[in-house]
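Weekly puzzle thread! Below is a chain. First person to post its structure in token form gets bragging rights.
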Amino acid sequence: MKKQNLISVGAIHIIVVLFFLFVYLTPTHFTFLIWNVFLALLPLDFALVVAYTKRVTLGTIFSILWLLFYPNTMYMITDYIHLQYIGIGLTVRMQYFNYAVLSAGIFIGVVLGILSLELIFKHYFDKRHDVLELLLMAVLSIISGVGIYIGRFLRLNSWDVFTRLQHVLSLIVESFSMHMIVFVTLFAGVQFAILVISHYGIRLIQNTVDK
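Winning reply:
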């Protein structure tokens, strides 16, 4: 790994750790963000292994792990549900303090997911494949939408696929309903919009710099 990339990876992890310490040491209502952001950080680390390993088997294993844990990044969008415990107004200090902490955690999680996807794309696509990339972003958004639904409503975790696969599949089948379809569709659309804007925005910056 190049020195510049090491600095970039180090800076990202330092900020995440500082966020952990801030949430842990301050009187916020959202200490669960430490765990959620940690889970959102894992896909980036898995993607880094995929990007830099020269072993095909190891790369395949971590690509699968990345796919399983990626929904944890976009799952954090739904953490705004916790605003119900402090109110949605910004009239007192504790409200906007907790609002800021919650928003920071959510945006960090989403950005980590975007970065991990860009690393995966860079690894598997040497050249630009716009149609294929858009298709994959759409499929990934749907898969992640299902993952968010599973996590938010069925209260299952990514590692349950390894420990209770049959139970996970049975719960998904039992939970299939119009509510699930609408939820997954809406959040897949939100994710797809975010991924497309970020993907082509990053490309725009790269092309501008290259000029």
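Puzzle host: Confirmed. Bonus trivia for everyone else. The first helix runs from residue 3 to 25.
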